Amino acid sequence: MNKDNLHVFLTIVQYGSISSAAKRLFTSQSNLSAKLQNLEEEVGHPLIIRGRGRKTIELTAHGEKLLDIARRMESLDNELDELKKDNGRQTLAVGMIEALCTVTLLPFLKGFMVRHPEICLTLHTYHSREVCSMAENRMIDLGLAGRSSVSGAVRSEYLLFEPMTVLVHRDSDYQDGVSLSDLPADGEIYVRWSSAFENWHHEIWQPGQFQIQVSTSSMVGDYICSAQNWAIVGKSTALRMTERYPVRVIRCREKLPVRAFYIMENRYPRPSRIAAMELFKHELRDWISGSQILLDGRTHPSGIII
């Protein structure tokens, strides 16, 4: 079976359409359509449902079956490539969102690196949606993200829960026990953590009344620059920022949401990496269970989960 045609098929599935796949592969739609047709002739069955007005592809029953086979074949090809480059060390590729990599899990990652020099650990940071896609396409071995994967090719489960807290300027008058309704909307440095968080947020403050919206928690500290400013962030991020910025953490009268993080892996991991994956997961869960901030994902917390 032609490997190039299989790769084209997997790319079309990943990006949802031939046009999107063509942009990703820097080629023409007609070229990809021809390769897809060649693959269908080789398999002996149509792989996608064709019809006018379809913006995204839909696989036939044979297409679904081939998708599973193609993923396993690509995994084996990657195994062979790694065997050629083998230097005696295990390799483990982990993709995660920035906050986990640079703040929340930083102590664990540094410790794992020191404890296991026999493992070549490669870390990548992406948005949650990209982490899910990377796990689905075996571009990473493990994914850690703020959402679970909806792909049947990926196993997802809760990893940890992190309490949210309020971060304020060091010179502000806000004190422990403040009510959320007493925090002025026009002083907020707003991060849209998720749609669930946004819905909860809209029950207290009017939409769009914040002073500024930022895309990641790493930006928050730079914008809490007056006594009126405040932000809702993960507790590990908040504590880290108290070391770097003129800010402090306060407790609220109401219970704040808890943020969920997931761990995911492809259902067909590379055999040569399974040992390193299991070791990483085992030590990570042990580290989380001993944390004074984080909650183990196996124990579901009460309250709003975002």
3D structure, described in words:
This protein has helices spanning 3-15, 18-25, 29-43, 61-84, 98-104, 106-115, 128-136, 195-202, 220-223, 235-242, 274-289; strands spanning 90-96, 119-125, 142-145, 154-169, 189-191, 212-214, 230-234, 247-250, 258-266, 295-296. By secondary structure, it is α/β, with parallel strands linked by helices. The strands form two sheets. Strands 1, 2, 3, 4, 7, 8, 9 and 10 form an eight-stranded mixed beta sheet that branches. Helix 1 crosses helix 2 (18-25).
Short description:
The protein is of the alpha/beta class. It is built from eleven helices and ten strands.
For this entry, give a set of tags.
306 residues; Arc Repressor Mutant, subunit A; D-Maltodextrin-Binding Protein, domain 2; 8-stranded mixed beta sheet; 11 helices; 40% helix
Task: Give a topology summary.
Layout: H1 3-15, H2 18-25, H3 29-43, H4 61-84, E1 90-96, H5 98-104, H6 106-115, E2 119-125, H7 128-136, E3 142-145, E4 154-169, E5 189-191, H8 195-202, E6 212-214, H9 220-223, E7 230-234, H10 235-242, E8 247-250, E9 258-266, H11 274-289, E10 295-296
Parallel strand pairs: 1-2, 1-3, 5-6
Antiparallel strand pairs: 3-9, 4-7, 4-8, 4-9, 4-10
Helix pairs in contact: 1-2, 1-3, 1-4, 2-3
In whole angstroms, how far apart are the ends? 44 Å
CATH class of the largest domain: Alpha Beta
CATH fold node name of the largest domain? D-Maltodextrin-Binding Protein, domain 2
Radius of gyration: 23 Å
How many helical stretches? 11
Helix content: 25-40%
CATH hierarchy: architecture of the largest domain: 3-Layer(aba) Sandwich
Q: How many distinct beta strands? A: 10
Percent of residues in beta strands? 15-25%
Which whole number gives the mean pLDDT?
Answer: 90
State the low-pLDDT regions, or none.
Answer: none
Number of self-contained structural domains: 2
Q: List SSEs in N-to-C order.
A: HHHHEHHEHEEEHEHEHEEHE
Structural class by secondary-structure content: alpha/beta
Q: Can you summarize the main beta sheet? A: 8 strands, mixed
Which overall shape is indicated by the principal axes computed on the Cα atoms? globular
